[in-house]
Write a structure and sequence with these properties.
This protein is an alpha/beta fold. It is 35% helix and 10% strand.
């Protein structure tokens, strides 16, 4: 087996964390079950991928593409660590040299999945979940996010009905309660990130001023949170991101050894992968040499669930950068076709370009398009698709490799002198984003740094945010609820 070691290729880039889906994790974990396993019969495994661990990037010995970093959400997890759960085994019993960031489940509160009066510190339902999340984080996570209640819950009909939270202020109060519980009951095994929310610049500033104390070692010596997670407008608006980082610098809340990590939630654009690397390097150079930025998205899994396959990493100089995905091959005629997956989709004109992954290199087209005409699925019916459930797992692994590869390839292209159009100012001085960021963090004082940010106000409006927002166009307006859930 030839491995493509993506961990070794990571260099000093901002770190992409695949947001592992429970569907995919179940295939890796349940295949290990010595009693009920194997989850997938050996006869169904592709000839080129006879062992499920080959799809597990957290397994640096057996994985086709070892990659040590990932994210997993408490919102999808079995939080009871006292019982064996094989579908969780990919996360629970991963290689100790890997890194896992735990998402807290604030999304589930916002969507009304975790019921309870979260603004009441004595609500039994909320307290039970609060305790379970903290024990889960402290038990198996390297870093975890505090259990924030996102500001948009006040606009979520499901969230309002399940939590009783109807205003921004009530979301803040609920987050206070969770932060106090976490900071006073954590056991020290997991480092925690203080989540910053707010749907516009004013609310984001208010949220920060009220929550920053939880990262202050003077106020919480030995118990303070260990970094930051950027949610809401903080993750979508580069103007706000730069302003916040300058404030953190001069509030002394980016200290080496104390606040070494910052995570950006739900970030999938390749331009932002490069943008965050540029910021990380500037912070390391001027403020904290141990500072690391990470970002996550579930796109590789969601794309597959929607029947789409990543097939092209497209990085044209001074143009838009992207990874392309399409509905490619789902046809029962391929169930006996022994061509490689790549050869079949190219030769049949399904796509014009296909970036081969370590997974696809080991797949025949019939390994994915498994059902023949007349075959019955698991519920005893003949469906319209040629894919069985394992087909999705195979393509998810391919998509994960392609997404990581795209992020690393984009950063490498930038280092070698290419850049996406978004990161070059289109007006005025025609400066690159990197030049301006270095000016900001090398400034002699806070007022000078903030003046530089405001000087390039027009540039920030040209940088499309991670949710499709553009700079200050959303500064004073609340965003639409549905856009929070791409």
């Amino acid at each position: 087996m030839t491995q493509d070691n993506l961990t070794a290729k990571q260099s000093d880039y901002a770190i992409f964390l695949p947001a592992i889906s429970t569907f995919f994790a179940t295939y890796v974990g349940k295949q290990r079950d010595p009693v009920a396993g194997p989850y997938v019969e050996p006869s169904r495994m592709p000839a080129g991928i006879p062992d499920m661990e080959m799809l597990n990037w957290l397994n640096d010995q057996q994985g086709l593409f070892p990659y040590k970093w990932s994210l997993y959400s408490a919102g999808h997890a079995n939080l009871d660590l006292n019982k064996q759960d094989w579908k969780e085994d990919m996360v629970r019993n991963r290689d100790p040299n890997t890194f896992m960031l735990g998402d807290s489940g604030g999304f589930q509160i916002g969507k009304g999945k975790w019921e309870g009066d979260w603004k009441n510190p004595n609500c039994p339902k909320a307290q039970k979940k609060r305790e379970a999340v903290l024990k889960w984080m402290d038990g198996i996570m390297d870093y975890g996010m505090c259990l924030d209640i996102p500001a948009w819950v006040a606009r979520s009909p499901e969230g309002q009905a399940a939590t009783g939270i109807t205003t921004y202020e009530e979301a803040v109060q609920g987050t206070y309660i969770n932060n106090e519980y976490f900071i006073n009951n954590r056991n020290g095994n997991c480092k925690f990130l203080n989540v910053l929310q707010g749907e516009n610049h004013a609310d984001a500033e208010d949220w920060y001023q009220r929550m920053k104390k939880y990262c202050d070692p003077k106020q919480y010596p030995g118990r303070h949170f260990n970094g930051w997670a950027m949610g809401g407008q903080n993750m979508a608006d580069i103007h706000l991101v730069l302003k916040r980082l300058v404030v953190l610098q001069y509030d002394n809340l980016l200290q080496e050894g104390l606040h070494d990590w910052m995570h950006f939630l739900g970030t999938s654009k390749l331009e932002w992968a490069v943008l965050l690397t540029i910021i990380q390097r500037a912070i390391r150079k001027h403020i904290n040499p141990s500072f690391t930025i990470s970002f996550d998205c579930a796109s590789p899994f969601l794309a597959t669930a929607n029947g789409q396959v990543y097939h092209h990493i497209d990085l044209p100089h001074d143009e838009k950068w992207c990874y392309r995905m399409s509905f490619i091959a789902d046809d029962k005629k391929y169930a006996t076709d022994t061509r490689t997956y790549r050869d079949a989709v190219l030769q049949d004109g399904l796509v014009t370009h296909f970036d081969e992954s370590p997974v696809s290199k080991n797949l025949l087209i019939k390994d994915v398009c498994f059902y023949k005409p007349g075959d019955l699925n698991k519920i005893g019916k003949e469906g319209t698709t040629s894919w069985d459930s394992f087909s999705y797992a195979l393509l998810m692994a391919h998509n994960v490799w392609t997404h990581i590869e795209a992020v690393q390839r984009a950063n490498k292209a930038y280092i070698n002198g290419s850049w996406p159009k978004m990161l070059r100012q289109q007006h005025g001085e025609y400066l690159k984003f990197e030049t301006i960021v270095d000016l900001i963090f090398s400034a002699n004082n806070r007022s000078d740094a903030e003046a530089i940010i405001e000087r390039y106000d027009r540039f920030w409006m040209e940088i499309v945010g991670t949710r499709g927002y553009v700079g200050k166009k959303t500064k004073n307006a609340s965003t639409q609820f549905n856009s929070m859930f791409e």
